[in-house]
Design a protein that fits this description.
Helices cover about 55% and strands about 0% of the residues. It has about 80 residues and is mostly helical. It has one domain. The protein starts with 6 loop residues before the first helix and ends in a 16-residue tail after the last helix.
Length: about 80
């Protein structure tokens, strides 16, 4: 079974930008985005959620609350 995508991975896929471009869009350091994408849990903090929502609005990307939360694990 494939491993579930983390919130950061789901959001990055929706933007369809390389990490460096996503970092520039969010005005965050590239290394922060790269670490977040590799992180096992990939949780998105409140400040980054706000920045992602603003960037999504600017770029016409549709983000849902479920994109920014972990997927439920199968029991």
């Amino acid at each position: 079974m494939a491993k579930a995508k983390t919130p950061w991975q789901k959001v990055a896929a929706k933007f369809a930008l390389p990490p460096s471009r996503l970092a520039a869009e969010l005005q965050r350091h590239r290394s922060k985005i790269c670490r977040a994408l590799r992180d096992e849990h990939g949780l998105i903090n409140g400040r980054d959620q706000l920045l992602l929502l603003q960037a999504a609005r600017r770029r016409g990307v549709t983000l849902a609350p479920s994109d920014m939360t972990p997927e439920e694990e199968d029991a």
